[in-house]
Amino acid sequence: MSTLTYYRIKLQLASPLAVGSGEDSNTDSDVILDSSGAPIIPATSIAGAVRHFLGVECDDKSMLFGYVNGKNGNNGNNVDNGNDSLESKVKFYDAVLISDSFITVRDSVALENKVGVKGAKFDKEAVETDSVFETLIELRNVSEDEENAILDAVSAIDSGLLRIGSKTTRGYGEFRVTEIKKAVFCLPDDRKEWVEFLPYDFSSDKCYTDILHEIKNRKQNFNYTRIHLELKQRGAVSIRSYTVKNANDIKTADFVQLSTNDGVPVIPGTSWAGAFRKRFSDFTGKDKEYVNNVWGNVDIEKNIQSKSKIIFSESRLANYVEKKIDRNAIDRFSAGTKDGALYSEKTVYNGKCSLNIDIKNDVAEPDKCMKIISAVICDLDRGYLAVGGLTSVGRGLFSVEKVTIDNADVTEAMKRADIQGMTGGNA
Fold first, then answer.
1. pLDDT tens digit string along 114-124?
2. Using an 8 Å Cβ cutoff, are 17 and 124 in contact?
3. What CA–CA distance (Å, rounded) separates 154 from 151?
4. Helix (H) or strand (E) segment spanning residue 124
């Protein structure tokens, strides 16, 4: 008896998605497209993200994903050749776009102590938020535990803990599961139904049952601590978009606030991470080794590359007021205005947003890390930490209206600057 299980999944982007094609025709990193010119998420990207996630959560991922000559395979397509190899029990399919989409261009620059590193500016394409993709996962003769591991991964995608593509710790690649349906075939008994089954026919509901409720209510026991912040602006924020989408903006302002394609102002995860990392480093006495262990590090000369243990979401502003401001550059020597240096900027005031910060529990010295992050949040609330540009003139300040740690409300402790109270007495 052989059992085949199929999961048909709809995924809606909750943040930009960066899946590079290796091409640089339009930007330093272009989005991968299918033959019709639409964005696509390769099966290898999905499989790699799931496998990496289950590397922590699953006791024996090699039995699920297969291996070749004793070495773990990468894409789940390895075939048993009788030479110490095992075929994968799970097969991933490309995620295809089923909605309208917009490819945006995001500008970035490497920072050191909040100062741009010379020659480290780059731009990249990203698929805009709210785009919807559909994909398929096929399981063959899996155990109950193995199937639960895959469902845990799907649940982690829905909660934002498992992200796809690049820059996933900095606000990219976050999805919500909007639909998931399951089909099971026991062969040879269900041979006729399986032969007539069309796995690529996403429009057909034949043989499928809806299990979205199960995913949404699935008990999660992932190795992360989630900090959720509800924030309100204290004045304006300045995170400039250098790729102007609206022709009217060119006529009305020299600089505009970074926003989604439908005009919603955003604070990218990169901005949050940069501000938090700088303050975190200040609190450690600039212990560079510990900071790199927590926040990740890339050293090309030493061939060192590590991923951040802290994941930031992208924040969408709401209930804001948009204003145009005229400013003049100041001569640093005379302290007077520069001739011909008048410029205008469209920015937003007094908006509200939320921010998720997910910290892996295997972070170096977790109690110390939580204590420092809690102190950074207190500084953010008091106006000692600003986000974005023009912070020297009062931009980028926020008050923290509510903070929860793993759903426990610690707002009052934060207002008292009670770090021990925020961390449950473990700090």
1. 445 555 566 78
2. no
3. 5
4. strand 115-127
Say how far apart CA 66 and CA 87 lie, in whole Å. 5
Whether the Cβ atoms of residue 373 and residue 422 lie closer than 8 Å to each other: no
* pLDDT tens digits along 391-423: 888 899 999 999 999 999 999 999 999 999 998
Residue 181 burial by CB count (10 A; 0-12/13-18/19+): exposed, middle or buried? middle
DSSP at 162: S
pLDDT at 69: 63
Tally the residues of the chain. 427
Partners of residue 164 on adjacent β-strands:
none
Between residues 335 and 276, the one the model is more confident about: 276
Alpha carbon of residue 305 to chain centroid: 19
Chain-centroid distance, C-alpha 356: 10
* Peptide bond before residue 366 is cis, with ω within 30 degrees of 0: no
The full DSSP string for 364-426 is SSHHHHHHHHHHHHHHHHHTS---SS-GGGT-S-EEEEEEEETTEE-HHHHHTT-HHHHTTT-
Summarize pLDDT for 264-290 with one digit per residue, the tens. 999 999 999 999 999 999 999 879 999
Query: Residue 19 pLDDT more than 80?
Result: yes
According to DSSP, the residues that pair with 232 across neighbouring strands are 352, 399
Structure tokens at 276: 């938090």
Q: Please tell me the distance from the alpha carbon of residue 176 to that of residue 185, in angstroms, as a whole number.
A: 27
d(CA 358, CA 379): 19
Highest-confidence segment of 69-73, 208-212, 355-359: 355-359
pLDDT given at position 313: 95
Element of type H or E holding 152: helix 144-159
The 10 Å Cβ neighbour count of residue 193 is 14
Contacts of residues 111-117 at CB distance under 8 Å and 24 or more positions apart, as own/partner, are: 111/274, 111/278, 113/278, 113/281, 114/274, 114/275, 114/278
